[in-house]
Amino acid sequence: MTTTPLRGLRIAITGAGRGIGLATAKELRQRGATVVIGDLDASAAASAAATLGSDVEAFALDVSDHESFAAFIKQAAADAPIDVLINNAGIMPIGHFLDQSAEVHRRAVEVNVMGCIYGMHLALPAMIERGSGHIINIASAAGKSPVPGGLTYCGTKSAVIALTETARVEFSGSGVEFTCVMPSFTNTELIAGTTATKLVPIAEPSDVARAIAGAIGKPKADVYVPKLVGTLLRPQPLMGRRLRDIVNRKLGAYNTFLDFDPDARAAYTRRITES
């Protein structure tokens, strides 16, 4: 399989200390891009950078804090302008809505939604002035369809989908591209303790990374991973709620975030709540 060379591009990635962010940094690095990574876990970011190469810069970054994000953008652009910003950082609290604390709901909105908004708000001015650039926001297939047990998570990812599409329209003609990436179940700690649906296979972080790299080389507005997800989700609005609900229940999609193993998920839950 041929890959699109990305040599010469400077790409900043949030939440790149692990999971999809780390896999993406590795893929882009292999294609010749200069990569700058940020993560709330500074030690994870430093460790990731060490595995990627001596020229990969890593910085502590709290995407929910505007000042922290501004510092990251300044550091990432210190040697050269940022060509691509990948807003990847996100958290996925799941379980019955009323069983989750108000703090958890607030944190999900701050990281998943405000993180994307802050990133775009800070990176866009230089891109628009230059007449080129690319913003990639990592949403989720869960933002396109209801998933009980993921009420707040689905809401945040729906917001990311909407703000990416609205930015694409508002800034059309500016030379800046906008891409929304919507992975389904991906084999990272976010799905710890859960069971995938019967139809859609679990993607690997490397699958998402290759899709992101492909969208940078050949920009497109929407990217589903795997592609089958787009085939399943696009016609759902035409089905009507009743038929959609019947199909999703049969596929097990409505139990995914409710019937999970809390013990298997404990480490991840503890990490996102303590942060």
- What's the β-strand tally? 7
User: Termini distance?
Assistant: 40 Å
What sequence of helices (H) and strands (E) makes up the elements?
EHEHEHEHEHEHEHHHH
Shape: globular
Number of helices: 10
Could you describe the largest sheet, including whether it forms a barrel?
A: 7 strands, parallel
Using the CA coordinates, give the radius of gyration. 18 Å
Quaternary structure:
single chain
In the CATH hierarchy, the third-tier topology is known as Rossmann fold
Q: Hey, roughly how much beta strand do the residues contain?
A: 5-15%
* Top CATH class: Alpha Beta
Question: Which residues sit in consecutive blocks of at least 5 with pLDDT less than 50?
Answer: none
Number of domains: 1
Question: How does this model look, in words?
Answer:
The chain is α/β, with parallel strands linked by helices and 275 residues long. The chain has one domain: NAD(P)-binding Rossmann-like Domain (Rossmann fold), CATH 3.40.50.720. It is 48% helix and 13% strand. The protein is built from 10 helices and 7 strands. It has a 7-stranded parallel beta sheet with strand order 3-2-1-4-5-6-7, with helices on both faces. The radius of gyration is 18 Å and the shape is globular.
Short description, anyone?
This protein is α/β, with parallel strands linked by helices. It is 48% helix and 13% strand. It contains ten helices and seven strands.
Ordered list of secondary-structure elements with their pairings:
Blueprint: E1 10-14, H1 19-30, E2 34-39, H2 42-52, E3 57-60, H3 66-76, E4 84-87, H4 102-130, E5 133-138, H5 151-170, E6 176-183, H6 205-217, E7 222-225, H7 227-233, H8 236-239, H9 241-251, H10 262-274
Parallel strand pairs: 1-2, 1-4, 2-3, 4-5, 5-6, 6-7
Helix pairs in contact: 1-6, 3-4, 4-5
